[in-house]
Design a protein that fits this description.
alpha+beta, Fumarate Reductase Iron-sulfur Protein, Chain B, domain 2, oxidoreductase, two-stranded antiparallel sheet, elongated, tricarboxylic acid cycle, 9 helices, 13% strand, SDH/FRD_Iron-Sulfur, Ubiquitin-like (UB roll), 247 residues
Length: 247
């Protein structure tokens, strides 16, 4: 195995470039080095101006999402040896404005996420002294998969709908809404309904499935969206046939 591998890194320094350019760096090719390790080597040893996000280095925080050889990946969980002999092309996540180098602007996601109210909503809160809201293992299984989202936004980068329709709420936000809709402790499904059932919500999804393929945690946002489509359609028919049943 070679001792080095080439990283082709997208650079965008707004004071220097009007659009991104590619710059090549030679980094050590070590067995356990992830793409993030290669980028850290560049920043520490070759060019301290390189900008990128990272935090936990353990595939938990979701902050180091990048496009690696054309695919949205967590750079801390994508290994250089998998791309040997190289080169490895590293670019920002697609479908987001680029602030600098590999750093994207996530304001759109952060604005849309609270719109689906991804927290437990209850009509009445029991006093603390009455104890916890207990769940059975079966109740936990209903939503646990969708609770694994780490907000890495790889699904948004992979989604062809979001690339064409930026008003689309997006796969992660909808999956997180379903995480709470399916939680036995939650009573807020009706409050989320208007946003999720809007033209920018579930009905914008064409079920390509790239979001689920890109998800590093197996959340299956495409599955969450299709499941809620059934819920929304059923509720619409009920409202039409039995209008008095509306809350």
């Amino acid at each position: 195995m070679a001792d080095e591998i080439t990283l082709e890194v997208a650079r965008y320094r707004p004071e220097l470039e009007s659009e991104p350019v590619m710059e090549s760096f030679q980094v050590p090719l070590r067995e356990h080095w992830a793409v993030l390790d290669g980028l850290t080597y560049v920043k520490d040893q070759l060019d301290g101006t390189l900008s990128f996000r990272w935090s936990c280095r353990m595939g938990i925080c979701g902050s180091c999402g990048m496009t690696v050889n054309g695919e949205p990946q967590l750079s801390c969980a994508t290994f250089l040896t998998d791309y040997a002999p190289g080169p490895v092309r590293v670019e920002p996540l697609r479908n987001f404005p680029v602030i600098r180098d590999l750093v994207i602007d996530i304001d759109d996601f952060m604005t849309k996420l609270p719109e689906v109210k991804p927290w437990i909503i209850r009509d009445v809160h029991s006093p603390v002294e009455e104890g916890e809201y207990l769940q059975t293992p079966q109740e936990l299984d209903e939503y646990q998969q969708f609770s694994m989202c780490i907000n890495c936004m790889l699904c948004y980068s992979a989604c062809p709908v979001y690339s064409l329709e930026p008003d689309f709420i997006g796969p992660a936000a909808i999956a997180l809404a379903q995480r709470y809709n399916l939680d036995s402790r939650d009573e807020g499904a009706e409050e989320r309904r208007a946003v999720l059932s809007s033209p920018e919500g579930i009905w914008a999804c064409t079920f390509v499935g790239e979001c689920s393929a890109a998800c590093p945690k197996g959340v299956d946002p495409a599955g969450a969206i299709q499941r809620y489509k059934l819920t929304a359609a059923t509720r619409s028919i009920k409202d039409l046939l039995m209008p008095r049943s509306r809350r």
